[in-house]
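RECORD TYPE: inverse folding
INPUT: structure tokens
STRUCTURE:
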């Protein structure tokens, strides 16, 4: 007679349903973003600096969000080196833990967001489950951060940022139809764009934020793509930044977009 093994019991966590928001910061950028996430979710989140955490605390939370800056050539911020060494050396039980990692860095370096990548891989080795692929943000790009935050809302149910009325448009392709006239195709996951005629674009380029720019759009019902046509003759004062934006944009770029009322 065969005796079936009992199903393994799910882990219970001392912190219950509370969510750990942990950050590693060199200049304060990651700390400020983590504080912002926490302030929107104080009812069910705990905020901690990884420079101060007890490594065993990672076993106490079933859901964890990491916001991690990179120092130098992809290294961990100086203050969190003891945590990093402990995480790499100690054996923890992270079975049942669900997590997300946001890396902040500069893609000019070869090991872009290297510290964040190392933490992501180590958590998986210890048994944790990534709810999202690692998100790597170049120069604190606001659209990428907003996109990541919206995914956290979907996966962990946390409250969104105050600027959640902006959606994210993913650049699919860029073409120059004639000198000074470009066409961009955006993928936007929102039905409100299907009948819109104008669109506000907010973007960052080379670490500099733009002003909100209004452009005409071409969209068709049930079409997942919205085409943005920018011609020099139609956009007088905004022509130069727009032309520069489109001439440097590449597929995969994220823009914040909003329907013009």
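DESIGNED SEQUENCE:
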């Amino acid at each position: 007679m065969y005796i079936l093994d009992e199903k393994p019991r799910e882990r219970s966590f001392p912190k219950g349903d509370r969510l750990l928001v942990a950050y590693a910061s060199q200049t304060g950028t990651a700390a400020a973003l983590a504080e912002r996430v926490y302030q929107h979710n104080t009812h069910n989140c705990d905020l901690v600096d990884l420079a101060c955490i007890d490594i065993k605390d990672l076993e106490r939370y079933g859901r964890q969000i990491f916001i991690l800056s990179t120092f130098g050539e992809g290294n961990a911020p100086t203050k969190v080196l003891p945590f990093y060494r402990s995480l790499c050396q100690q054996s923890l039980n992270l079975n049942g833990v669900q997590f997300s990692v946001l890396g902040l860095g500069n893609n000019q370096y070869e090991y872009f967001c290297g510290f964040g990548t190392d933490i992501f891989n180590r958590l998986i080795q210890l048994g944790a489950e990534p709810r999202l692929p690692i998100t790597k943000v170049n120069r604190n790009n606001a659209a990428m951060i907003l996109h990541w935050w919206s995914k956290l809302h979907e996966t962990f149910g946390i409250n969104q940022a105050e600027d959640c009325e902006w959606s994210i448009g993913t650049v699919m392709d860029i073409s120059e139809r004639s000198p000074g006239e470009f066409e961009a195709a955006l993928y936007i996951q929102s039905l409100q764009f299907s009948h819109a005629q104008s669109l506000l674009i907010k973007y960052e380029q080379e670490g500099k934020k733009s002003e909100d720019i209004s452009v005409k759009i071409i969209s068709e019902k049930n079409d997942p793509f919205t085409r943005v046509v920018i011609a020099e003759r139609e956009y007088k004062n905004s022509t130069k930044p727009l032309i520069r934006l489109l001439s440097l944009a590449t597929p995969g770029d994220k823009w914040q977009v909003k329907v013009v009322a």
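NOTES: The radius of gyration is 21 Å.
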